[in-house]
């Protein structure tokens, strides 16, 4: 999937340029990062995309603005390298990470026993501390 760093639209891989901004598309994760934090944020990690944004800004001037200005990007720290640590689900009630996934079999048995009164219909996780389900 590709994305536009100017308007944050997402496109299929076969599309080459944004219909609205007429800029060459790039990986949507990089494009979204540029859209949110400005192109200075990608200077060291993605030098090819950074140069592409410099050329775009030279041609289009300030029309190529982003959601946040490039000066704002200095105040926002770059994303951490280990995103897997951030993607750990937490209980919305108590904030605990001591949770378990409610299996399909577990839900089916609960619905078979309790019918529509089962508390597991539409729930995916259960907190082992406070017993909340969501």
Structure, described:
The structure is a single chain. The protein is α+β, with helices and mostly antiparallel strands. The chain folds into two domains: 2-77, no CATH class; 88-134, no CATH class. It has four helices and five strands, in the order βββαααβαβ. The protein has helices at residues 28-37, 47-60, 72-75, 104-114, and strands spanning 2-3, 10-11, 26-27, 99-101, 125-127. The strands form two sheets. A three-stranded antiparallel sheet has the order 2-1-3, with helices on one face. A two-stranded antiparallel sheet has the order 4-5. It is elongated. Mean pLDDT is 76; it is low at 63-76.
Q: Indicate the low-confidence ranges by residue numbers.
A: 63-76
Helix % is 25-40%
Order of SSEs: EEEHHHEHE
Main sheet makeup: 3 strands, antiparallel
Terminal Cα span:
30 Å
Radius of gyration: 22 Å
How would you state the average pLDDT, rounded? 76
Can you lay out the helices and strands and say which pair or pack?
Elements: E1 2-3, E2 10-11, E3 26-27, H1 28-37, H2 47-60, H3 72-75, E4 99-101, H4 104-114, E5 125-127
Antiparallel strand pairs: 1-2, 1-3, 4-5
């Amino acid at each position: 999937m590709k994305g536009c760093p100017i308007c944050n639209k997402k496109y299929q891989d076969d599309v080459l340029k944004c219909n609205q901004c007429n800029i060459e598309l790039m990986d949507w994760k990089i494009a979204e990062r540029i859209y949110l934090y400005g192109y200075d944020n990608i200077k060291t990690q993605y030098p090819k995309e950074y140069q592409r944004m410099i050329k775009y800004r030279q041609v289009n001037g300030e029309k190529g603005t982003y959601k946040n200005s490039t000066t704002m990007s200095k105040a926002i720290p770059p994303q951490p390298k280990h995103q897997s640590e951030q993607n750990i689900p937490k209980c919305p009630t108590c904030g605990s990470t001591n949770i378990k996934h409610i299996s399909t079999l577990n839900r089916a048995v609960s619905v078979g026993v309790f019918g529509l009164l089962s508390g597991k219909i539409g729930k995916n996780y259960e907190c082992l501390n406070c017993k909340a389900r969501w």
